[in-house]
Write a structure and sequence with these properties.
The protein is α/β, with parallel strands linked by helices. The chain has 13 helices and 22 strands. The protein folds into three domains: about 120 residues, no CATH class; about 110 residues, Outer Surface Protein A, domain 3; about 140 residues, Rossmann fold. Strands 3-4-5-6-7-8-9-10-11-12 form a ten-stranded antiparallel β-sheet. Strands 2-1-13-14-15-16 form a six-stranded parallel β-sheet, sandwiched between helices. The longest helix is centred in the first third of the chain and has 12 residues.
Length: about 450
């Protein structure tokens, strides 16, 4: 059985799964770690053994966290809330990236030192408390994973590392996550013949131990420093697991090919595919989602382009600074306390995304704007560098390029192509089929 093994269900794994399925390549997805979310039909040893899984209900709203009597919860910014007792901060709630003020983690502080969490509770996307990490002055030392009844099913000792599985057959001890994952595959009767991975960590270690020599394809989605990572270098010189490395950045492939011209491992390039849900319609309509009123260069943009409709939205109320700006500029619209339906409409009605606000990029907004086929403009000072966006030096540089695209649709299309092809030309379904030697199929 050929499967995907990922370290985590993060943005890169989501992008890879989507590209493979767009190309008609469907495999079961397994995840070494669990951080509160998995795709449909995705599995992890943590969710399997604890029974924590998919539910229809939404996550836990921040003010529903269970706290002792006389404690209070106070929202403080776009990403967190304080737990307070007698005007003293005793804990902090951190929100999930997706959704509105839904709980991701809750830190509980030491009575002696409010900078030192003594434990961190974690909640999944359905609002279930699935794990707690205990800490002291030396750092985290224990993580427990719970079933729906709150019973401890998995204990991870972190200093030094070991793992204990508590199940109906008794306790089972593991020295590392690799052993634990191999045991999990055995229990669920998965006989692996090949793997797709996107990490040189546990997915590679697991693939090496599965007895499928040279049956693994590594998809490299991370930045590549001056030196090739050690585990990749070892495989390039003496392959143990890898059959090929597929780079999502064309220049990375060229670099590794030049450094290792005699490697037996295939080196190929594929871009992400199937990312756009619509066409760009070249409308003079720009959008910003922010949790801060510190929006660099917004006055310059509004002054220079009165014909450009700009919408600024936030999950919170708007500051007086932004309200005054709306009074001054007729082409500016503010959407305070935006909900998901309003956000979807605003994204669909805009063709330019201005990534010019300081602070968090809330709710994966840059990725969502890219999926909407919007042209994304940003500055060096505030840009998120692992995204396909056009990054300029300063407000003047951005305004010059904004003028360039607003006056000529061909210019707009040229800059769009430059943005999309930032890491290499766009691949096709046929490219995936040929590079991966897969037959396109339906789910």
């Amino acid at each position: 059985m050929e499967i995907n093994i990922f370290d985590r269900y993060d943005a890169q794994s989501k992008k890879l799964i989507h590209s493979l399925e767009t190309a008609g390549i469907y495999r079961d997805n397994y995840f070494v770690h669990y951080e509160g979310d998995l795709p449909a039909q995705g599995s992890s040893p943590y969710t399997y053994f604890t029974g924590i899984g998919s539910q229809e209900k939404e996550g836990l709203f921040f003010d529903k966290v269970k706290i002792p009597q006389f404690y209070g919860i106070r929202h403080i910014d776009g990403g967190s809330a304080n737990i307070e007792y007698l005007d003293k901060v005793v804990g902090k709630i951190h929100y999930r990236d997706e959704g509105y003020r839904l709980v991701n983690t809750v830190e509980w502080y030491s009575a002696e030192n409010i900078q030192l969490p003594v434990k961190v509770d974690r909640y999944n996307r359905y609002g279930q408390h699935y794990s707690t990490t205990f800490t002291n002055e030396n750092g985290a030392y224990l993580t427990e994973y719970y079933d729906a009844s709150g019973d401890v099913i998995i204990s991870e000792n972190l200093m030094p590392y070991s793992l204990v599985l508590h199940d109906r057959l008794g306790e089972k001890h593991f020295d590392n996550l690799t052993q634990f994952f191999i045991y999990y595959l055995k229990i669920i009767n998965v006989n692996v013949s090949g793997t797709y991975i996107n990490s040189l960590s546990y997915p590679l270690f697991i693939s090496r131990l599965l007895g499928i020599r040279r049956g693994t394809t590594l998809f490299w989605q991370e930045p590549l420093a001056d030196d090739v990572p050690g585990n990749m270098k070892d495989e390039l010189i003496t392959p143990k697991a890898l059959d090929q490395v597929v780079f999502m950045n064309y220049n990375h492939m060229l670099k590794v090919a030049k450094l290792f011209p005699k490697t037996e491992i295939g080196l190929n390039y594929l871009s992400p595919i199937g990312e756009f849900v619509r066409e760009n319609h070249f409308r003079m309509s720009a959008f910003i989602l922010t949790n801060s009123d510190n929006i660099y260069g917004i006055r310059d943009i509004l002054t220079s382009f009165p014909e450009l409709k700009v919408t600024i939205a936030a999950y919170t109320n708007m500051s007086q600074k932004l309200l005054h700006l709306e009074d001054e500029f007729s082409q500016l619209t503010l959407i305070p306390s935006i909900d998901q339906d309003q956000l979807s409409i605003a994204l669909a009605e805009s063709d330019i995304y201005l990534d010019i606000n300081y602070g968090l990029k809330v709710d994966h907004i840059i990725e969502r704007a890219y999926q909407q086929h919007m042209i994304i403009l940003s500055y060096k000072e505030v840009a998120q560098y692992d995204t396909n966006s056009l990054i300029f030096e300063d407000a003047r540089d951005l305004c010059n390029n904004l003028s360039y695209i607003l006056t000529d649709r061909t210019n707009w299309q040229n800059l769009m192509t430059k943005m999309i092809d930032k890491n290499g030309i766009q691949s096709t379904i046929e490219d995936y089929q040929q590079t991966l030697n897969e037959q396109v199929s339906k789910a």
